[in-house]
Amino acid sequence: MARQSSVYIGNHTSIPSSVTPGLLYKNLGKSGLLVPNIGLSLWTMLNEDVAEDLVMTALESGINLIDLSKAHNAQGEAELGRILKKRNVKRSSIIITTKIYWSTKCEERGQSRKHIIRSVKESLGRLQLEYIDLVLVHKVDPLCPMEELVRTMNCLINEGFVMYWGTARWTPTEIMDAYSKCRTFNCWTPVVEQTEYHMFCREKTELYMPDVYRMIGVGTMAWSALSTDMGLNREGVAEIFAKSRFNRKYSTFSWWEEELVANNELENNESAVAEESRSFKDKLKALSDLANALNCSIRQLSLAWCLKNENINCLLLGATSVEQFKENIHALQIVPQLSPEVILDIEKILANKPQRPPMIARLDAANSTETPKEDDVEANVSTSEEEEVVRGCAFQ
Protein backbone atom coordinates (compact mmCIF):
# COMPACT_ATOMS: atom_id res chain seq x y z
CA MET A 1 0.00 0.00 0.00
CA ALA A 2 1.36 3.40 -0.95
CA ARG A 3 2.41 5.55 1.97
CA GLN A 4 0.47 8.78 2.38
CA SER A 5 1.96 11.87 3.97
CA SER A 6 0.25 15.10 5.00
CA VAL A 7 1.86 18.33 3.90
CA TYR A 8 1.21 21.57 5.79
CA ILE A 9 0.36 24.26 3.26
CA GLY A 10 -0.20 27.10 5.72
CA ASN A 11 -0.47 30.65 4.45
CA HIS A 12 0.60 29.71 0.93
CA THR A 13 -2.98 28.97 -0.06
CA SER A 14 -6.48 30.22 0.64
CA ILE A 15 -9.98 28.79 0.34
CA PRO A 16 -12.53 30.89 -1.58
CA SER A 17 -15.96 31.51 -0.11
CA SER A 18 -18.99 30.05 -1.85
CA VAL A 19 -21.17 32.91 -0.58
CA THR A 20 -19.30 36.18 -1.18
CA PRO A 21 -17.08 36.54 -4.28
CA GLY A 22 -13.56 37.55 -3.34
CA LEU A 23 -13.85 36.42 0.28
CA LEU A 24 -11.02 34.04 1.17
CA TYR A 25 -10.24 31.91 4.20
CA LYS A 26 -6.62 31.87 5.32
CA ASN A 27 -4.65 30.26 8.10
CA LEU A 28 -4.14 32.61 11.03
CA GLY A 29 -0.36 32.78 11.08
CA LYS A 30 0.97 29.25 10.87
CA SER A 31 -1.83 27.87 13.05
CA GLY A 32 -4.56 25.59 11.80
CA LEU A 33 -7.31 28.17 12.45
CA LEU A 34 -8.94 29.36 9.21
CA VAL A 35 -10.16 32.96 9.26
CA PRO A 36 -11.82 35.11 6.58
CA ASN A 37 -9.70 37.84 5.01
CA ILE A 38 -12.34 40.32 6.26
CA GLY A 39 -13.60 40.41 9.84
CA LEU A 40 -16.31 42.42 11.60
CA SER A 41 -15.15 44.67 14.44
CA LEU A 42 -17.74 45.76 17.00
CA TRP A 43 -15.74 48.62 18.45
CA THR A 44 -18.53 51.20 18.26
CA MET A 45 -21.56 51.61 20.49
CA LEU A 46 -24.56 50.71 18.33
CA ASN A 47 -28.29 50.35 18.71
CA GLU A 48 -29.29 46.77 19.62
CA ASP A 49 -31.18 46.24 16.38
CA VAL A 50 -28.35 47.68 14.26
CA ALA A 51 -25.76 45.52 16.00
CA GLU A 52 -27.89 42.41 15.49
CA ASP A 53 -28.42 43.18 11.80
CA LEU A 54 -24.68 43.78 11.33
CA VAL A 55 -23.71 40.49 12.95
CA MET A 56 -26.25 38.46 10.99
CA THR A 57 -25.35 40.21 7.71
CA ALA A 58 -21.70 39.35 8.30
CA LEU A 59 -22.46 35.71 9.09
CA GLU A 60 -24.75 35.37 6.07
CA SER A 61 -21.93 36.80 3.92
CA GLY A 62 -19.49 34.18 5.18
CA ILE A 63 -17.64 36.62 7.47
CA ASN A 64 -17.55 34.58 10.66
CA LEU A 65 -14.80 36.43 12.60
CA ILE A 66 -16.04 39.03 15.08
CA ASP A 67 -13.56 41.22 16.94
CA LEU A 68 -14.46 42.87 20.24
CA SER A 69 -12.85 45.63 22.26
CA LYS A 70 -13.98 46.17 25.82
CA ALA A 71 -12.12 49.48 26.06
CA HIS A 72 -13.90 51.00 23.06
CA ASN A 73 -17.31 49.34 23.43
CA ALA A 74 -17.96 48.15 26.97
CA GLN A 75 -21.29 46.57 26.01
CA GLY A 76 -19.97 44.80 22.90
CA GLU A 77 -19.34 41.42 24.52
CA ALA A 78 -22.71 41.31 26.30
CA GLU A 79 -24.48 42.46 23.13
CA LEU A 80 -22.83 39.78 20.99
CA GLY A 81 -23.64 37.11 23.57
CA ARG A 82 -27.30 38.15 23.48
CA ILE A 83 -27.40 38.07 19.67
CA LEU A 84 -25.78 34.63 19.41
CA LYS A 85 -28.17 33.19 21.97
CA LYS A 86 -31.24 34.83 20.46
CA ARG A 87 -30.43 33.70 16.91
CA ASN A 88 -29.22 30.29 18.09
CA VAL A 89 -25.94 30.62 16.17
CA LYS A 90 -23.86 27.46 16.11
CA ARG A 91 -20.79 28.07 18.26
CA SER A 92 -18.40 26.11 16.05
CA SER A 93 -19.32 28.27 13.04
CA ILE A 94 -17.98 31.57 14.44
CA ILE A 95 -14.62 32.91 15.59
CA ILE A 96 -14.65 35.42 18.45
CA THR A 97 -11.67 37.56 19.39
CA THR A 98 -11.36 39.89 22.35
CA LYS A 99 -8.60 41.79 24.13
CA ILE A 100 -6.95 42.18 27.50
CA TYR A 101 -6.00 45.75 28.32
CA TRP A 102 -3.94 47.46 30.96
CA SER A 103 -4.54 51.01 32.05
CA THR A 104 -2.47 53.55 33.95
CA LYS A 105 -5.57 55.40 35.17
CA CYS A 106 -7.19 52.75 37.36
CA GLU A 107 -6.24 50.33 40.10
CA GLU A 108 -6.81 47.29 37.86
CA ARG A 109 -3.62 47.85 35.92
CA GLY A 110 -1.03 45.45 34.61
CA GLN A 111 -0.98 42.09 32.87
CA SER A 112 -0.47 39.95 35.92
CA ARG A 113 -1.80 36.43 36.12
CA LYS A 114 -4.61 37.65 38.38
CA HIS A 115 -5.72 40.41 36.00
CA ILE A 116 -5.55 38.28 32.84
CA ILE A 117 -7.47 35.29 34.22
CA ARG A 118 -10.12 37.51 35.79
CA SER A 119 -10.53 39.48 32.56
CA VAL A 120 -10.99 36.33 30.48
CA LYS A 121 -13.54 34.85 32.89
CA GLU A 122 -15.50 38.11 32.94
CA SER A 123 -15.53 38.16 29.13
CA LEU A 124 -16.80 34.59 29.06
CA GLY A 125 -19.59 35.56 31.44
CA ARG A 126 -20.64 38.51 29.28
CA LEU A 127 -20.47 36.44 26.08
CA GLN A 128 -22.29 33.51 27.73
CA LEU A 129 -19.79 31.13 26.14
CA GLU A 130 -17.53 28.33 27.35
CA TYR A 131 -14.44 29.47 25.47
CA ILE A 132 -13.00 32.32 23.40
CA ASP A 133 -11.30 31.51 20.12
CA LEU A 134 -8.60 34.19 20.25
CA VAL A 135 -7.49 36.47 23.09
CA LEU A 136 -5.18 39.38 22.24
CA VAL A 137 -2.91 40.98 24.81
CA HIS A 138 -3.04 44.72 24.08
CA LYS A 139 0.39 46.34 24.52
CA VAL A 140 3.17 45.08 26.75
CA ASP A 141 3.09 45.90 30.44
CA PRO A 142 6.66 46.99 31.31
CA LEU A 143 6.07 46.08 34.98
CA CYS A 144 5.00 42.48 34.35
CA PRO A 145 7.58 39.75 33.59
CA MET A 146 7.14 38.21 30.17
CA GLU A 147 7.43 34.75 31.72
CA GLU A 148 4.35 35.35 33.87
CA LEU A 149 2.36 36.53 30.85
CA VAL A 150 3.16 33.57 28.60
CA ARG A 151 2.65 31.04 31.39
CA THR A 152 -0.77 32.59 32.14
CA MET A 153 -1.86 32.41 28.50
CA ASN A 154 -0.62 28.82 28.36
CA CYS A 155 -2.68 28.00 31.46
CA LEU A 156 -5.84 29.49 29.92
CA ILE A 157 -5.35 27.45 26.75
CA ASN A 158 -4.68 24.22 28.64
CA GLU A 159 -7.78 24.81 30.77
CA GLY A 160 -9.91 25.24 27.63
CA PHE A 161 -10.98 28.84 28.28
CA VAL A 162 -9.02 30.11 25.26
CA MET A 163 -8.10 28.38 22.00
CA TYR A 164 -5.34 30.72 20.73
CA TRP A 165 -3.63 33.87 21.92
CA GLY A 166 -1.98 36.75 20.16
CA THR A 167 -0.73 40.29 20.62
CA ALA A 168 -1.92 43.78 19.72
CA ARG A 169 0.36 46.77 19.10
CA TRP A 170 3.51 44.94 20.15
CA THR A 171 6.89 45.65 18.59
CA PRO A 172 8.58 42.84 16.63
CA THR A 173 11.22 42.67 19.38
CA GLU A 174 8.54 42.14 22.04
CA ILE A 175 6.86 39.45 19.94
CA MET A 176 10.19 37.65 19.52
CA ASP A 177 10.79 37.89 23.27
CA ALA A 178 7.40 36.31 24.01
CA TYR A 179 8.05 33.55 21.46
CA SER A 180 11.46 32.83 22.99
CA LYS A 181 9.95 32.60 26.48
CA CYS A 182 7.23 30.27 25.19
CA ARG A 183 9.82 27.94 23.68
CA THR A 184 11.91 28.04 26.84
CA PHE A 185 9.00 27.14 29.13
CA ASN A 186 7.18 24.86 26.66
CA CYS A 187 4.14 27.16 26.34
CA TRP A 188 1.72 27.86 23.51
CA THR A 189 3.16 30.57 21.27
CA PRO A 190 1.25 33.63 19.97
CA VAL A 191 -0.28 33.16 16.51
CA VAL A 192 -1.09 36.71 15.38
CA GLU A 193 -0.29 40.38 15.90
CA GLN A 194 -3.08 42.92 15.51
CA THR A 195 -1.63 46.15 14.17
CA GLU A 196 -2.53 49.39 12.47
CA TYR A 197 -2.27 49.40 8.69
CA HIS A 198 -3.41 51.85 6.05
CA MET A 199 -1.95 53.91 3.24
CA PHE A 200 -0.22 56.29 5.63
CA CYS A 201 1.05 53.77 8.19
CA ARG A 202 2.96 50.98 6.46
CA GLU A 203 6.41 50.36 7.91
CA LYS A 204 5.70 47.72 10.53
CA THR A 205 3.23 45.70 8.47
CA GLU A 206 5.20 45.72 5.22
CA LEU A 207 8.80 45.59 6.47
CA TYR A 208 8.85 43.69 9.74
CA MET A 209 5.77 41.47 10.07
CA PRO A 210 6.61 39.31 7.01
CA ASP A 211 9.93 38.47 8.68
CA VAL A 212 8.18 37.70 11.96
CA TYR A 213 5.85 35.33 10.10
CA ARG A 214 8.68 33.55 8.32
CA MET A 215 10.75 33.15 11.48
CA ILE A 216 8.18 32.25 14.12
CA GLY A 217 4.84 31.91 12.31
CA VAL A 218 3.02 34.95 13.76
CA GLY A 219 0.44 36.27 11.31
CA THR A 220 -0.99 39.77 10.89
CA MET A 221 -4.48 41.06 11.60
CA ALA A 222 -4.91 44.68 10.48
CA TRP A 223 -7.15 47.47 11.72
CA SER A 224 -7.67 51.14 10.87
CA ALA A 225 -7.87 50.49 7.15
CA LEU A 226 -10.55 53.18 6.84
CA SER A 227 -8.40 55.94 8.35
CA THR A 228 -7.63 57.02 4.80
CA ASP A 229 -11.26 58.07 4.42
CA MET A 230 -11.02 60.73 7.12
CA GLY A 231 -12.16 64.20 6.29
CA LEU A 232 -9.84 66.83 4.89
CA ASN A 233 -10.35 69.10 7.86
CA ARG A 234 -7.59 70.19 10.17
CA GLU A 235 -8.53 67.79 12.98
CA GLY A 236 -8.57 64.70 10.74
CA VAL A 237 -5.16 65.46 9.30
CA ALA A 238 -3.75 66.27 12.73
CA GLU A 239 -4.93 62.93 14.13
CA ILE A 240 -3.14 60.93 11.45
CA PHE A 241 -0.09 63.16 11.79
CA ALA A 242 0.07 62.67 15.56
CA LYS A 243 -0.53 58.92 15.45
CA SER A 244 2.03 58.30 12.73
CA ARG A 245 4.78 60.53 14.11
CA PHE A 246 4.41 60.96 17.85
CA ASN A 247 2.57 57.91 19.14
CA ARG A 248 3.63 56.91 22.61
CA LYS A 249 4.74 53.31 23.07
CA TYR A 250 3.33 52.86 26.56
CA SER A 251 0.28 55.11 26.34
CA THR A 252 -2.95 53.84 27.86
CA PHE A 253 -5.51 51.84 25.95
CA SER A 254 -8.15 54.51 25.45
CA TRP A 255 -8.48 56.26 22.11
CA TRP A 256 -9.69 59.44 23.81
CA GLU A 257 -6.41 59.63 25.72
CA GLU A 258 -4.48 59.27 22.46
CA GLU A 259 -6.59 62.06 21.02
CA LEU A 260 -5.33 64.28 23.85
CA VAL A 261 -1.79 63.43 22.76
CA ALA A 262 -2.74 64.35 19.20
CA ASN A 263 -4.12 67.71 20.35
CA ASN A 264 -0.96 68.46 22.32
CA GLU A 265 1.23 67.64 19.34
CA LEU A 266 -1.03 69.77 17.16
CA GLU A 267 -0.44 72.79 19.40
CA ASN A 268 3.31 72.21 19.60
CA ASN A 269 3.87 71.54 15.89
CA GLU A 270 1.67 74.01 14.06
CA SER A 271 4.01 74.54 11.12
CA ALA A 272 4.72 70.83 10.69
CA VAL A 273 1.03 69.96 10.81
CA ALA A 274 0.22 72.68 8.27
CA GLU A 275 2.76 71.31 5.82
CA GLU A 276 1.62 67.74 6.44
CA SER A 277 -1.98 68.83 5.96
CA ARG A 278 -1.32 70.29 2.52
CA SER A 279 0.54 67.17 1.42
CA PHE A 280 -2.15 64.89 2.82
CA LYS A 281 -4.95 66.79 1.08
CA ASP A 282 -3.15 66.63 -2.27
CA LYS A 283 -2.68 62.88 -1.92
CA LEU A 284 -6.29 62.28 -0.96
CA LYS A 285 -7.45 64.35 -3.92
CA ALA A 286 -5.31 62.27 -6.29
CA LEU A 287 -6.52 59.03 -4.68
CA SER A 288 -10.11 60.21 -5.03
CA ASP A 289 -9.59 60.83 -8.75
CA LEU A 290 -8.07 57.36 -9.13
CA ALA A 291 -11.00 55.81 -7.26
CA ASN A 292 -13.45 57.55 -9.59
CA ALA A 293 -11.56 56.11 -12.56
CA LEU A 294 -12.01 52.64 -11.03
CA ASN A 295 -15.71 53.35 -10.39
CA CYS A 296 -15.43 53.02 -6.63
CA SER A 297 -15.14 55.24 -3.55
CA ILE A 298 -11.86 56.18 -1.90
CA ARG A 299 -12.96 54.08 1.08
CA GLN A 300 -13.32 50.99 -1.12
CA LEU A 301 -10.01 51.74 -2.82
CA SER A 302 -8.29 51.95 0.57
CA LEU A 303 -9.74 48.60 1.67
CA ALA A 304 -8.89 46.91 -1.61
CA TRP A 305 -5.32 48.22 -1.37
CA CYS A 306 -4.98 46.69 2.10
CA LEU A 307 -6.51 43.38 0.96
CA LYS A 308 -4.00 43.27 -1.88
CA ASN A 309 -1.26 42.68 0.71
CA GLU A 310 -1.02 38.89 0.93
CA ASN A 311 0.69 39.09 4.33
CA ILE A 312 -2.59 40.27 5.90
CA ASN A 313 -4.50 37.28 7.29
CA CYS A 314 -7.58 39.28 8.26
CA LEU A 315 -8.64 42.88 7.75
CA LEU A 316 -11.03 44.21 10.42
CA LEU A 317 -13.89 46.41 9.26
CA GLY A 318 -16.33 48.38 11.35
CA ALA A 319 -19.60 49.97 10.33
CA THR A 320 -22.50 51.90 11.79
CA SER A 321 -25.13 50.48 9.45
CA VAL A 322 -25.74 47.43 7.30
CA GLU A 323 -25.58 49.57 4.15
CA GLN A 324 -22.14 50.88 5.07
CA PHE A 325 -20.92 47.37 5.86
CA LYS A 326 -22.12 46.06 2.49
CA GLU A 327 -20.41 48.98 0.78
CA ASN A 328 -17.17 48.08 2.56
CA ILE A 329 -17.47 44.43 1.58
CA HIS A 330 -17.76 45.50 -2.05
CA ALA A 331 -14.05 46.34 -1.85
CA LEU A 332 -13.47 42.61 -2.46
CA GLN A 333 -14.65 43.22 -6.04
CA ILE A 334 -12.15 46.05 -6.47
CA VAL A 335 -9.10 43.94 -5.59
CA PRO A 336 -8.86 42.28 -9.05
CA GLN A 337 -8.83 45.75 -10.63
CA LEU A 338 -5.64 46.68 -8.78
CA SER A 339 -3.25 45.68 -11.52
CA PRO A 340 0.52 46.30 -11.20
CA GLU A 341 0.01 49.51 -13.15
CA VAL A 342 -2.68 50.75 -10.73
CA ILE A 343 -0.54 49.80 -7.73
CA LEU A 344 2.33 51.76 -9.28
CA ASP A 345 0.06 54.78 -9.70
CA ILE A 346 -0.93 54.54 -6.01
CA GLU A 347 2.72 54.33 -4.98
CA LYS A 348 3.50 57.45 -7.00
CA ILE A 349 0.68 59.30 -5.26
CA LEU A 350 1.60 58.15 -1.75
CA ALA A 351 5.38 58.44 -2.18
CA ASN A 352 5.87 56.70 1.15
CA LYS A 353 6.83 53.14 0.29
CA PRO A 354 8.80 51.92 3.32
CA GLN A 355 12.44 51.09 2.74
CA ARG A 356 14.83 49.23 4.94
CA PRO A 357 17.63 51.40 6.31
CA PRO A 358 20.81 50.97 4.25
CA MET A 359 23.56 48.73 5.51
CA ILE A 360 26.41 50.66 7.09
CA ALA A 361 29.66 49.70 5.41
CA ARG A 362 32.57 49.45 7.82
CA LEU A 363 35.75 50.76 6.22
CA ASP A 364 39.01 49.11 7.11
CA ALA A 365 41.55 51.53 8.49
CA ALA A 366 44.16 50.03 6.22
CA ASN A 367 42.10 50.84 3.11
CA SER A 368 41.06 54.32 4.19
CA THR A 369 43.45 56.89 5.55
CA GLU A 370 41.04 59.80 5.37
CA THR A 371 39.88 61.07 8.73
CA PRO A 372 36.22 62.05 8.83
CA LYS A 373 35.52 65.66 9.47
CA GLU A 374 34.06 66.67 12.79
CA ASP A 375 30.98 68.13 11.09
CA ASP A 376 30.34 64.87 9.22
CA VAL A 377 30.57 62.85 12.42
CA GLU A 378 28.11 65.10 14.19
CA ALA A 379 25.72 64.93 11.23
CA ASN A 380 25.64 61.13 11.35
CA VAL A 381 24.99 60.89 15.07
CA SER A 382 21.26 60.76 15.74
CA THR A 383 19.79 61.82 19.03
CA SER A 384 17.36 59.67 20.99
CA GLU A 385 14.66 62.22 20.14
CA GLU A 386 15.26 61.77 16.40
CA GLU A 387 15.27 57.99 16.73
CA GLU A 388 11.88 58.13 18.44
CA VAL A 389 10.46 60.12 15.50
CA VAL A 390 11.94 57.68 12.97
CA ARG A 391 10.34 54.73 14.69
CA GLY A 392 6.94 56.42 14.65
CA CYS A 393 4.08 54.17 13.72
CA ALA A 394 6.44 51.46 12.47
CA PHE A 395 6.44 49.84 15.88
CA GLN A 396 2.94 50.75 17.04
Could you explain the architecture of this structure?
The chain is 45% helix and 13% strand. Helix 4 crosses helix 5 and helix 7 packs across helix 8. The chain has an eight-stranded parallel barrel with strand order 4-5-6-7-8-9-10-11, surrounded by six helices. The chain has 396 residues and is α/β, with parallel strands linked by helices.
Please tag this protein with its features.
alpha/beta, three-stranded antiparallel beta sheet, 396 residues, globular, 11 strands
Instruction: Write down the secondary-structure element order.
Output: EEEEHEHEHEHEHEHEHHHHEHHHHH
Total count of strands: 11
Termini distance?
54 Å
Question: What fraction strand?
Answer: 5-15%
Q: Major beta sheet, specifics?
A: 8 strands, parallel, barrel
Strand line-up across the major sheet: 4-5-6-7-8-9-10-11
Helix/strand-derived category reads alpha/beta
Q: Helix count, per DSSP?
A: 15
Instruction: Report mean pLDDT, rounded to a whole number.
Output: 81
Approximate shape = globular
**Over all CA atoms, what is the radius of gyration?**
22 Å
Unreliable spans are: 1-10, 241-260, 369-392
Helix content: 40-55%
Outline the fold blueprint.
Elements: E1 15-16, E2 24-27, E3 34-36, E4 38-42, H1 48-60, E5 65-68, H2 76-86, E6 95-100, H3 113-127, E7 132-138, H4 146-159, E8 162-168, H5 172-184, E9 192-196, H6 203-216, E10 219-223, H7 234-245, H8 255-268, H9 270-293, H10 298-307, E11 314-317, H11 322-329, H12 331-334, H13 340-350, H14 374-380, H15 384-391
Parallel strand pairs: 4-5, 4-11, 5-6, 6-7, 7-8, 8-9, 9-10, 10-11
Antiparallel strand pairs: 1-2, 2-3
Helix pairs in contact: 2-3, 4-5, 5-6, 7-8, 7-9
